[in-house]
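A reminder from the course coordinator: this example appears on the midterm review sheet, so study it carefully.

Given structure:
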């Protein structure tokens, strides 16, 4: 690598506990990379309060959707107020604004959902008619499909406030991503992991995306060292599925890709895509293997459309996960 100029790299983040924690973890990793590679960079955190954070009491679809969390951070990047931003991959809109790229997808942690329960340690242990808190149509469609007796109820807020609401609002269980809990060091709160057979995760769940300016070659070269190729391949499959189905809004769909095997032709991916009716009456799933991530995601989406996914998507576009 050529001689690098000293620089303070400004990292923008939302101010939720999870956002701050995962941003801190990425900075730790980047500092280690700088040390190993003799790069003269230091890092500074800048907190950004987004519109999505200010309006926590209104259904997100009414105020403009999930992109709200990301839009102001993207603006700060484009203005040069910050140099990189750590996002949960599953919160990133499908389309990036001109001038910004995803510079790295670090190694994924658990992609799965889990239950935090009042008592018990499995989905089966939930009593008939139990109240389960989730605002995700993807989660409710799959749980309702398996357990039509359950009462799925909306719950919003950051993961810390949702955990508080489990008790305060008398839920029997809430559904959260394991990734957020493990990043917070709260794995001990998990009652049961929901495998991808039971609940296909959200596109990109458990992975982070590190956004930067396309013309910032120093940051791009640094971020390339943080990228995890297997995670990137999986996330590209899943996001191609997302893009083919609806290009950005949040709807009752999920996708989970893994590297099935590696041979002389390279990695072979396997992905399951799902689209479901939020009341659980219809759950469409398709699993296929392929070598090209974009083609695999698109093919699975097209198979599901053939089977009727477009009717569900037309009815439930624009909801928040
Ligand atoms: N929808 C909010 C959200 N966005 C990212 C995560 C954490 C999981 C991840 O990074 O994929 C969560 C919380 C949750 O769904 O439980």
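Designed residues:
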């Amino acid at each position: 690598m050529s001689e690098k100029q000293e620089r303070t790299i400004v990292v923008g983040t939302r101010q939720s506990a999870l956002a701050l924690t995962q941003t801190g973890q990425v900075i730790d990793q980047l500092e280690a990379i700088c040390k190993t590679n003799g790069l003269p960079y230091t890092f500074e955190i800048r907190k950004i309060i987004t519109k999505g954070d200010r309006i926590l009491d209104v259904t997100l679809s009414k105020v403009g959707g999930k992109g709200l969390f990301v839009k102001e951070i993207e603006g700060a990047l484009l203005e040069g107020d910050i140099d990189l931003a750590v996002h949960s991959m599953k919160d990133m809109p499908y389309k990036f604004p001109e001038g910004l790229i995803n510079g790295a997808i670090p190694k994924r942690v658990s992609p799965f959902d889990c239950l935090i329960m009042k008592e018990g340690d499995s989905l089966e242990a939930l009593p008939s008619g139990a109240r389960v808190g989730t605002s995700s149509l993807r989660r409710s469609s799959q749980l309702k499909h398996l357990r039509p007796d359950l009462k799925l109820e909306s719950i919003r807020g950051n993961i810390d406030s949702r955990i508080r609401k489990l008790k305060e609002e008398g839920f029997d269980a809430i559904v959260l991503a394991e990734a957020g809990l493990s990043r917070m060091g709260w794995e001990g709160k998990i009652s049961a992991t929901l495998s991808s057979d039971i609940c296909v995760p959200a596109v990109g769940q458990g992975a982070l995306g590190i956004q930067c300016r396309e013309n910032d070659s120093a940051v791009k070269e640094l971020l390339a060292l943080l990228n995890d190729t297997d995670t990137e391949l999986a996330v590209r499959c899943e996001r191609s599925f997302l893009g083919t189905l609806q290009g950005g809004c949040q709807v009752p769909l999920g996708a989970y890709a893994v590297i099935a095997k590696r041979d002389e032709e390279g990695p072979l991916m396997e992905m399951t895509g799902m689209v479901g009716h939020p009341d659980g009456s219809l759950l469409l799933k398709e699993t296929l293997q392929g070598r090209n991530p974009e083609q695999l995601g698109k093919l699975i989406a097209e198979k599901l459309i053939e089977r009727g996914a477009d009717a569900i998507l037309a009815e439930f576009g624009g909801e928040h996960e």
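The chain has three domains: 7-106+207-227, 113-194, 234-315. The chain has a mean pLDDT of 92.
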